Amino acid sequence: MRRERVYHFLYAVIWPFFRIFHPIQAVGRENIPEGGAVICPNHTTAGDPFYVVFAFGRKHTMWAMAKQQILDWPVIGWILGKAGVFGVDRGKADMKAAKTALKCLKDDQKLLMFPEGTRVGEGENVEAKAGAALFATRTGRPLLPVYIQPHKPLFKPVKVVIGEPYCPQVAGRKATAEELQHIAQDLMDRVRALGDGI
Q1: What is the pLDDT along the chain (198 residues), one digit of tens a residue?
Q2: Are 6 and 82 spatial neighbours (Cβ–Cβ below 8 Å)?
Q3: Which of 149, 189, 184, 150 shows the shortest CA–CA distance to 168?
Q4: What is the CA 190 to chain-centroid distance, rounded?
Q5: Residue extents of the structural domains in the chain
Q6: What is d(CA 103, CA 111) in angstroms, rounded to the nearest whole number?
Q7: pTM for this structure?
Q8: Is 76 helix (H, G, I), strand (E, B) or coil?
Q9: How open is the CA angle 162-165-168, to the nearest 5 degrees?
Q10: Of 40, 69, 117, 181, which has the fewest CB atoms closer than 10 Å, so is most exposed?
Q11: Sheet-wide strand order for 85-88
Q12: Is the dihedral of CA 89, 91, 94, 98 positive or negative?
């Protein structure tokens, strides 16, 4: 079963629910690049991946990195896996997930991942993980900051702001751990700046 077919099937099935209960107001769609990119939103609710997918529209399919436990769910996990969601074990260095992410970007596909690594409540301060920075610098694909409105009242539009893509620069051939952490923090600063005034 082809990934794109399952992806579009799920899109068609789930989208009407969001259109009724959580309509999405996308801002900055013109910033979406063609080809590969690391899509990096803030993360406050379990539904955030869907807000991003629907804000980007049916044309821009993407792969998504998620915690492994989601892929372990019976039936649902299998379907999500067929649609392009792959798991990462957050308790260790998951080389399989890293290789999948790198291959996705090298194949000029879009990759959705949350740099904070987990859902972050209002007032919480979580250090950004360096994974997105690593994948972008290793493949030359841009980072794309995205801000999702944290408060999502029923029947009212949820704003998703898509920022401008950019390619982080490093001095050497391979970024150091310190450089990657600096890029990750700068990325989250850019994400939060998109939410100013919302």
Answers
A1: 588 999 999 999 999 999 999 999 999 999 999 999 999 999 999 999 999 999 999 999 999 999 888 888 888 889 899 999 998 887 677 799 999 999 999 999 999 999 998 888 776 778 889 999 999 999 999 999 999 999 999 999 999 999 999 999 886 678 899 999 999 999 999 999 999 877
A2: yes
A3: 184
A4: 14
A5: 29-194
A6: 10
A7: 0.92
A8: helix
A9: 135
A10: 69
A11: 24-27, 158-162, 143-148, 37-41, 110-112, 63-67, 85-88
A12: positive
DSSP tag of 116: T
Other beta carbons less than 10 A from residue 122's beta carbon: 7
b/e per residue 50-71 (b: at least 16 CB within 10 A): bbbbbbbeeebbbbbbbeeebb
Q: Which two tokens stand for residue 23?
A: 């309509």
Contact between 76 and 13 (Cβ < 8 Å): no
Q: What gap in Å lies between CA 159 and CA 172, rounded to an integer?
A: 38
Q: What CA–CA distances, in Å, run from 108 to 36, 50, 193?
A: 4, 21, 27
User: Quick one: CATH architecture of 29-194?
Assistant: 3-Layer(aba) Sandwich (3.40)
